[in-house]
Amino acid sequence: MTAEARHCCDLMRLYVEHEDRVMLYWPRFDEYLIPVHDGGTSGIVLRYCPWCGVRLPKSKRDSDSPDA
């Protein structure tokens, strides 16, 4: 899955692109999150799509790559 919105299903795409930010996708870390509305950028990382059940990409947050 890439930043070009190749999401696992139409519902994931819909909620990631929704103006109310129901879901977040951070391409830098390849993470899908449910935002925590605490005034910051906190979120709960998802491991599986809540709609279709597909395993989501492993986070690149702890990667040693220079992009992360």
Structure description:
- This protein has about 70 residues and is of the alpha+beta class.
- It has one domain.
- Helix content is about 10%, strand content about 15%.
- It has a 3-stranded antiparallel β-sheet with strand order 1-2-3.
- It starts with 9 loop residues before the first helix and ends in a 23-residue tail after the last strand.
Strand order of the largest sheet: 1-2-3
Q: What's the alpha carbon Rg, rounded to whole Å?
A: 12 Å
- Write the element-wise H/E pattern from the N-terminal end onward: HEEE
What number is the mean pLDDT?
Answer: 84
The number of helical segments is: 1
Strand content: 15-25%
Keyword list:
68 residues, alpha+beta, globular
Lay out the secondary structure.
Elements: H1 10-17, E1 24-26, E2 31-35, E3 43-45
Antiparallel strand pairs: 1-2, 2-3
Summarize the structure.
It contains one helix and three strands. It has 68 residues and is of the alpha+beta class.
